[in-house]
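Fold it.
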Amino acid sequence: MFVLIAGGGPTGAQLAALLVAQHHEVRLVEQHRPVLAHIHRELPTEVIYEGSVTDPQVLEQAGIRQAQVLVACTPNDAENLVLCFLARTLYGVRRTIARVNSPHTAWLFDEKFHVDVALNETVILAHLIEEQMSMGDMMTLLKLRRGEFSLVEVRVAEGARVIGAAIKDLALPEQCVITAVIRQGAMVVPRGATVFEVGDEVLAVTDHQGAEQLAALFTPNV
């Protein structure tokens, strides 16, 4: 996959390093000399392009016409919006991801500026804290469909309501599917007759309502 990253701050530099390690084709555009001096110590020289992130000539030199994904993660929201708009309308980039720096401008990061995914760190952190407070020992492993669904993991604790119960008897909502049970280091493919035991690690794909019901089922009786 060819990913073009605009902005070489900590987020952009770490993302580039991760993608390079995974053998993706990566280009990173940055214009500030102190930032460039730092990322030249962290990334291969051929990955880095010096210049304004909104300069079409610089973007074309970095290969934006061939990029499959644009990640706009500069500290300037206006630049991130312009980048997404140019990437889609001028260069036909199929996927755009933009960092939201200010909560006051978050409402702009939508289809009007061709932002496919808006990463609002404040909102993400708030949601994570809310989830951890409301879901007990349940852990969110992955967000799907822009957060509409989640892959969650929960361990069956001593005294939990589900101990001895079969999956078919749980009356789970339609948007909640048990996908795997890890028992004593081995994976158990869940069936309707599968009965939960203490220590089982349960993986499920669910929406928010289903996650709340799962959390209640796996909470020990008091």
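The mean pLDDT is 87.
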